[in-house]
UniProtKB/TrEMBL annotation:
Organism: Lutimonas vermicola
SUPFAM superfamilies found in the cross-reference section: NAD(P)-binding Rossmann-fold domains
Stored Pfam families: Shikimate_DH
Keyword presence, NADP: yes
NADP is among the record's keywords: yes
UniProt xrefs under InterPro entries: NAD(P)-bd_dom_sf, Shikm_DH/Glu-tRNA_Rdtase
Domain Quinate/shikimate 5-dehydrogenase/glutamyl-tRNA reductase: 151-270
Protein name (database record): Quinate/shikimate 5-dehydrogenase/glutamyl-tRNA reductase domain-containing protein
Record's keyword terms, sorted: NADP
Length: 354
């Protein structure tokens, strides 16, 4: 997609999480008379493609306001997310932000893994006439609203529930525990780095809340009525769950789903998602190659956050890295979401709608 003279309201920077999806969208972008590229051929070139705009997006609010955005692909390879690729992946994210700047986007959301790479370090881009967000505030709103709704539907009362947060010292994990700390029976906190977890748990204990924590999930999982999983890694091992536990799996790659096959009685849904009741348009229409959900017009909370910022004209960095998400911001984002016709997504997981 070429650079243009008129500005765009927002840009979404993202990456793909598996090779079959990449094969589908790469072949869709090539002219129809060209031979289909195999996954093997694509793997040989994919990581060398510079970040670039792939399609434009148009979104309309029930208030009548219409905004235009662009999806910028980083071309980060799905099997190169580990620490040894950190430097080259960070460079790809920075190049993607440059691409957004060239396309004159006023606001940029760093989607999925790209926000974790920069960790809210937006300083390099202060001179640009645009604002950035990780999108984690609205993601947290949808995670929490999903948990509240699931609890109600399963006749669970939150202040009688023990809630386990996996990824408790992360941006979304801390935002969830801060929101829930006064409303649930006990918070069970899990992360791998013991010192960071201990410091955070001690801080909450000093505030007077009932907290149990461990770096070993086995110490916590069996007690949890509700589990929120927002860890940025796949290496999670979980067993011995409480009967009929509610699980909000909001991490990527999906944290828990494929580890729970023997637990047929739990209620597991993909959290952090919204549904744009007014729809949206992709130009060109790559929906078939970028959209894999069981209901129409679903979107990640992080992406919807920048859409709401554009509708509301918020010209300041909104979600800016670990520890900065407040209850007020979570509630404000959810209010804007409803105002602009964007609802919590229906419950679903990889098997379909629940
Ligand atoms: N649904 C959506 O729309 C949406 C939007 C944005 C982000 N996300 C996803 O949400 C997740 C969290 O994002 P974030 O920005 O909060 O990430 P973050 O700040 O990097 O936090 C990740 C947390 O996970 C912990 N962790 C990592 N591996 C773990 C493991 N194996 N077991 C237990 N804890 C583990 C980390 O602590 P240690 O390193 O100490 O373990 C940290 O507490 C990511 O997967 C992200 O892709 C979803």
């Amino acid at each position: 997609m070429d650079s243009q003279t008129t500005s765009l309201d927002f840009a979404v920077i993202g990456h793909q999480d598996n090779w079959p999806n990449i094969q589908s969208f790469i072949n869709a972008m090539r002219t129809t008379d060209l031979e289909e590229l195999s996954i093997e051929k694509i793997k040989g070139i994919y990581g060398y493609i510079p970040p670039r705009g792939i399609f434009k997006m148009r979104v309309k609010s029930p208030t009548g306001k219409e905004i235009n955005g662009v999806y910028i692909e980083t071309f980060i390879e799905p099997d190169q997310l580990e620490a040894q690729h950190l430097r080259s992946n960070i460079q790809k994210v920075k190049n993607a932000i440059e691409a957004a700047h060239t396309l004159k986007a006023k606001m940029v959301i760093l989607g999925g893994f790209t926000s974790i790479l920069l960790e809210g370090n937006f300083k390099d881009f202060e001179s640009y006439n645009m604002v950035l967000t990780t999108g984690n505030t609205l993601t947290t709103s949808y995670v929490l609203k999903g948990v509240e709704k699931a609890a109600k539907e399963h006749q669970l009362v939150l202040n009688e529930c023990k809630v386990l947060i996996i990824g408790a010292t992360g941006d979304i994990g801390m935002a969830c525990s801060n929101y829930l700390k006064g409303t649930v029976k006990q918070l069970l906190l899990c992360a791998r780095n013991r010192i960071r977890l201990e410091n955070y748990a001690d801080q909450l204990k000093r505030e007077g809340y009932d907290i149990k924590y461990s770096i070993d999930l086995d110490d916590l999982a069996a007690e949890a009525d509700i589990i929120i999983s927002v860890a940025s890694s796949q290496g999670i091992k979980i067993s011995n769950l409480k009967k009929a536990a509610i699980i909000c799996d909001a991490g990527y790659p999906k944290n828990l789903e494929d580890k729970l096959e023997q637990h047929t009685d739990v209620f597991l849904f993909h959290g952090g998602m919204g549904q744009l009741t007014n729809g949206y348009t992709f130009i060109p229409d790559y929906t078939a190659h970028f959209y894999y959900y069981p209901a129409p017009f679903l979107g990640h909370g992080c992406i919807i956050e920048v859409i709401l910022m554009a509708f509301e004209g918020i010209m300041e960095n909104y979600s800016t890295g670990r520890g900065n998400i407040t209850k007020e911001k979570i509630d404000k984002m959810y209010h804007w979401s409803r105002k602009h016709g964007i609802e919590l997504a229906p419950f679903y997981n990889s098997k379909g709608l629940l």
